[in-house]
């Protein structure tokens, strides 16, 4: 259920300018009419409706916060609100848009050559080409600085060897941004689907993000021309800046998941009767609802503040860490608490809270675990790194 239930008593929506609010309404309508009717089936089957990619493109959602090359050039706030509405249906839809726009397209847009931009970005913005982002490795999730994937020069070409894990969109991607260690530091390479030695294996039997498609990348003596390297990315700062973009979308997206849980549960509690009165009339239920409303409103205020910073003077990585750490943690707790109010009905796909909770378990971990973001905030406060 999406809708107009008054779960945000602070009326944070009134803080959103009219233009962004109108865009949000368009995305919400698309999400409710096109995505919501099919999400339970895809979650149960463990599939993603990749055929909808061009519809995402028609709405201008792919790379929407980028300028030129067919991208919408929207504000950071508009992008965040789009992520909110998509994740209000399912994290899988927001993940698709985040990986396409904030990781794959962003890496090309900010670090690619003009030829790379012209080749890929217009098609990716239309949803006609799909990208993925190969950074995480099987043995080095939170520590990308220890990556083992390597690229070496061979004449005018590069030879890449290594593997990547937990890569959203990988099984359907037309191109992968692959990060590899070189003698000149970490560099990014565009590896198209079908390149000899480049294989993708879908990861199945997931208990979370089931309406999203995930894979592993394997590169064995993959030969790419020198023109495949992203010329402006050198060192870990390149991929980490892309991750900051994706994490920003999560700050808003997690609010959407929490809102959907609370709206659904409030409606259920009003109509479900036990002991001769509605669940909403019990003090313990009201305490849960009140606490969840407080945390939802606070999470939205955090998201709106980060959007203000991002569209203004700029947002720092530690500030994004504050948003991801708080909002995902609170959204997960809201989803779990909503499930308790739904009782037995809450374990079915007829209601979204447990599906959202399962998804948020992944969101809690990817793009930086809670522990990593806690340490990032700690370092910003103290000036001391506790990573090693």
UniProtKB/TrEMBL annotation:
Signal sequence extent: none
Gene3D superfamilies membership: Acyl-CoA dehydrogenase/oxidase, N-terminal domain, Butyryl-CoA Dehydrogenase, subunit A, domain 2, Butyryl-CoA Dehydrogenase, subunit A, domain 3
Keyword Oxidoreductase: yes
Domain Acyl-CoA dehydrogenase/oxidase N-terminal residue range list: 18-128
Top-level taxon of the source organism: Bacteria
InterPro entries assigned to the protein according to its UniProt record, in alphabetical order: Acyl-CoA_Oxase/DH_mid-dom, Acyl-CoA_Oxase/DH_mid-dom_sf, AcylCo_DH-like_C, AcylCo_DH/oxidase_C, AcylCoA_DH/ox_N, AcylCoA_DH/ox_N_sf, AcylCoA_DH/oxidase_NM_dom_sf, Glutaryl-CoA_DH_mitochondrial
One Gene Ontology term from the biological process aspect of the record: fatty acid beta-oxidation using acyl-CoA dehydrogenase
Pfam families, per database record: Acyl-CoA_dh_1 (PF00441), Acyl-CoA_dh_M (PF02770), Acyl-CoA_dh_N (PF02771)
Keywords noted in UniProt: FAD, Flavoprotein, Oxidoreductase, Transit peptide
One Gene Ontology term of the molecular function aspect: fatty-acyl-CoA binding
Family membership: Belongs to the acyl-CoA dehydrogenase family.
Protein name (database record): Acyl-CoA dehydrogenase
Lineage: Bacteria, Bacillati, Actinomycetota, Actinomycetes, Streptosporangiales
């Amino acid at each position: 259920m999406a809708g107009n239930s008054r779960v945000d008593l602070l009326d944070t929506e009134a803080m959103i300018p009219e233009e962004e609010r109108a865009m949000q309404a368009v995305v919400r309508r698309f999400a409710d009419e096109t995505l919501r009717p099919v999400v339970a089936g895809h979650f149960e089957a463990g599939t993603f409706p990749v055929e909808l990619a061009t519809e995402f493109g028609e709405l201008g959602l792919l790379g929407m916060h980028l300028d030129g090359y067919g991208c919408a050039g929207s504000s950071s706030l508009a992008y965040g609100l789009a992520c909110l509405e998509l994740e209000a249906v399912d994290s899988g839809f927001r993940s698709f848009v985040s990986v396409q726009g904030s990781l794959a397209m962003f890496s090309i847009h900010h670090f690619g050559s003009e030829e790379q931009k012209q080749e890929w970005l217009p098609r990716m913005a239309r949803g006609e080409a799909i990208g993925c982002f190969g950074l995480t490795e099987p043995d080095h999730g939170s520590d990308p600085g220890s990556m083992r994937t390597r690229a070496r020069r061979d004449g005018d070409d590069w030879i890449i060897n290594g593997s990547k894990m937990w890569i959203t969109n990988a099984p359907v991607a037309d191109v992968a941004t692959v990060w590899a260690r070189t003698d000149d530091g970490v560099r990014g390479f565009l590896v198209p689907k079908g390149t000899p030695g480049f294989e993708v294996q879908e990861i199945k039997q997931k208990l979370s993000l089931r309406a999203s498609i995930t894979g592993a990348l394997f590169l064995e003596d993959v030969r790419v021309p020198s023109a495949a390297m992203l010329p402006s990315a050198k060192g870990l700062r390149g991929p980490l800046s892309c991750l900051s973009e994706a994490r920003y979308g999560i700050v808003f997206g997690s609010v959407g998941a929490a809102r959907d849980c609370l709206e659904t549960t409030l409606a259920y509690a009003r109509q479900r009767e036990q002991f001769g009165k509605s669940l909403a009339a019990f003090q313990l239920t009201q305490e849960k609802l009140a606490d969840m409303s407080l945390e939802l409103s606070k999470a939205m205020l955090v998201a709106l503040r980060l959007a203000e910073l991002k569209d203004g003077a700029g947002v720092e990585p530690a500030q994004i860490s504050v948003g991801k750490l708080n909002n995902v943690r609170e959204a997960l707790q809201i989803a779990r608490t909503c499930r308790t109010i739904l009782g037995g009905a809450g374990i079915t796909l007829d209601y979204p809270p447990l599906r959202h909770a399962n998804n948020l378990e992944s969101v809690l971990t990817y793009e930086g675990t809670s522990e990593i973001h806690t340490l990032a905030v700690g370092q910003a406060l103290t000036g001391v790194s506790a990573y090693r």
